[in-house]
């Protein structure tokens, strides 16, 4: 507890001066030129640093904090250097994905869920998008891990599909419309198993199609994506993602494009297959119902930061952050009649000009005096439950502040 008190003493909550709000979003020609110059300089420097780090195994090989995790996000900062300024899409997020578990990542549109998963796959739109701080550790066994932030492209090609794979939101756009299904699944298996013969590859593809519940596997093998329904296409994407038994599957809104009954089937399928191949799922979704039914752990994001994380029980039965409480209040409950569903007032702050106090304060109906200080620290309120909110400042254990990056120092 001594460290806790020390952190509380040194946190200097009331002394943080508030940023003055900009009167308009208008950018003058001069500002625009300055931003462009700055972006060019910074991205060039970051690309150079990345190229150097890619050659140095000391910078991309690391160790897991806990061997029971498959992925650890540690103060990850992913910024986009855009024409209107730096968008801090993900700013100092930390959470773990334990082995053989499902972690649900929820939050409203634009809060950084997809950018988090793209950072893990190293699929950010570079040079505009850059991971400028923190570590993403991927467990490769034997006590070793890759720090994805600095991992060279050739290594990433091996890891994608083999260790990490991704299922996207819209199966029609993630499958190639001009190639047959069989060819697209074969391609992934062949790439990661160059020693397999063509017959072995085809047999494995048919096995995968059967595994994802496709009855007419031989027929579907020679069909084009447009000949299949949305649910069937998503099953094919799952077959591709699971073909090499990855340690972690990222499912970014996997059921948004499907109707409710097919949604349930696809989620069941994912959950069953995950158990069969002993992998973990990072399930990104807007839908709290989906998370409640599937996730073991839940991470709630808001404006590029993790504001609350814990087990599904913690988040659904004891939500602590006013934003999570608001989310729970805003979902309809079967059997409960209400005139109007609750909605959280206000809007998310401008990502180019984030405040230096709690990002949720302008919408928070529970704010207190302390909330006028700097951004709240992570506070542990039970063994599994962590929240970033001053309401728990006195009774909880302070873990620390999210580490952000000052772009001027880059
Ligand atoms: N290529 C890009 N260039 C500039 N900004 C980007 C880019 N990609 C994402 N962003 C910004 O990053 C922030 C987070 O975006 P992200 O796509 O991660 O949101 P999300 O939580 O996945 O939202 P949704 O639920 O709608 O998919 C947004 O403010 C978005 O505008
Ligand atoms: S820190 Fe204050 S303003 Fe922010 S969510 Fe908690 S109570 Fe609301
Ligand atoms: Mg998204």
Secondary structure layout plus pairing:
Elements: H1 2-10, H2 29-54, H3 57-60, E1 61-62, E2 69-82, E3 85-98, E4 102-106, H4 113-121, E5 129-141, E6 144-147, H5 153-162, E7 164-167, H6 171-174, H7 181-192, H8 198-211, H9 217-221, H10 230-242, E8 248-252, H11 260-276, E9 280-285, H12 288-294, E10 297-302, E11 305-311, H13 312-317, H14 322-329, E12 378-380, E13 386-387, E14 397-400
Helix pairs in contact: 7-8, 8-10, 10-11
Radius of gyration: 23 Å
Rounded to the nearest angstrom, the distance between the terminal CA atoms is 35 Å
**Major sheet: order of its strands?**
7-8-9-4-10-11-13-12-14
Mean pLDDT, to the nearest integer, reads: 89
Number of helices: 14
Q: Which class do the helix and strand fractions yield?
A: alpha/beta
Summarize the helix and strand pattern as letters: HHHEEEEHEEHEHHHHHEHEHEEHHEEE
Strand content: 15-25%
Low-confidence stretches: none
Overall shape: globular
Which cofactors or ions or other ligands sit in this model?
Answer: adenosine-5'-triphosphate, iron/sulfur cluster, magnesium ion
Helix content: 25-40%
**Number of strand elements:** 14
Biggest pleated-sheet summary: 9 strands, mixed
């Amino acid at each position: 507890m001594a460290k806790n008190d020390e952190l509380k003493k040194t946190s200097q909550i009331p002394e943080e001066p508030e940023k003055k709000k900009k009167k308009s979003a208008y950018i003058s020609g001069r500002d625009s030129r300055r931003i462009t110059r700055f972006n060019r300089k910074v991205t060039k420097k970051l690309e150079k640093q990345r190229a150097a780090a890619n050659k140095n195994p000391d910078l991309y090989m690391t160790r897991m904090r806990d061997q029971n995790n498959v992925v650890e996000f540690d103060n990850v900062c992913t910024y986009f250097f855009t024409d209107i300024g730096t968008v801090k899409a993900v700013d100092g997020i930390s959470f773990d994905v334990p082995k053989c578990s499902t972690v649900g990542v929820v939050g409203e549109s634009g809060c950084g869920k997809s950018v988090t998963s793209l950072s893990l796959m190293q699929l950010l739109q570079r040079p505009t998008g850059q991971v400028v701080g923190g570590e993403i550790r991927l467990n490769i066994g034997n006590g070793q891990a890759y720090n994805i932030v600095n991992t060279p492209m050739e290594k990433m090609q091996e890891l994608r599909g083999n260790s990490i794979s991704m299922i996207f939101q819209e199966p029609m756009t993630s499958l190639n419309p001009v190639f047959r299904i069989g060819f697209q699944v074969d391609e992934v298996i062949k790439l990661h198993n160059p020693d397999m013969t063509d017959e072995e590859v085809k047999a494995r593809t048919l096995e995968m199609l059967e595994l994802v519940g496709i009855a007419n596997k031989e027929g579907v093998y020679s069909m084009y994506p447009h000949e299949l329904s949305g649910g069937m296409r998503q099953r094919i994407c799952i077959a591709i993602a699971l073909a090499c038994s990855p340690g972690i599957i990222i499912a970014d809104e996997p059921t948004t494009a499907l109707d409710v009954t097919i949604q349930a089937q696809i989620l069941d399928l994912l959950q069953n297959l995950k158990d069969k191949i002993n992998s973990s799922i990072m399930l990104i979704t807007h839908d709290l119902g989906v998370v409640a039914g599937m996730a073991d752990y839940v991470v709630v994001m808001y404006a590029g930061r993790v504001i609350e994380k814990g087990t599904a029980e913690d988040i659904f039965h004891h939500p602590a952050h006013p934003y999570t409480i608001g989310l729970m209040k805003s979902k309809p409950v079967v059997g409960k009649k209400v005139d109007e569903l609750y909605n959280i007032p206000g809007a998310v702050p401008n990502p180019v000009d984030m405040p230096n106090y709690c990002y949720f304060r302008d919408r928070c109906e529970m704010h207190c005096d302390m909330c006028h200080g700097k951004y709240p620290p992570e506070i542990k309120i039970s063994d599994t439950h962590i929240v970033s909110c001053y309401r728990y400042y006195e009774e909880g254990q302070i873990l620390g502040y999210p580490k952000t990056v000052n772009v001027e120092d880059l």
